[in-house]
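One record is kept unedited as follows:
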Amino acid sequence: MAKSTMKAIVSSKGNGGAGKPRKKSNYGIERQPRSEAIEAASSYKTEFPQFAALCGKSRRSHMVVPKAIARKVGITGKGKTVLLDPKGRSWRVSFSPRMDGRVDIISGWAGRR
């Protein structure tokens, strides 16, 4: 089973979130202004392959894993894996590769967004 790690950072839309109070999402993840979210994701270091994606409306039900990450963790067909967040929490997800090499996480993502 391939292991991957992901940092969940949720951003508010708009002018970088300037002047907006931080809110908690329905999933207990603190919302950050977009610029802070990008900075936090960029500074996160781990030994595992990682990528950052802004979680907006289009990311509610699935996540697309970049081709380079899919190759590094050995995703070549449909299957399941375990994702880890920076706090060490894990959860199972199902994935399905696309023809272009990217991978869709098709179940297990919606409850963790």
Residues 34-43 form the longest helix (10 residues).
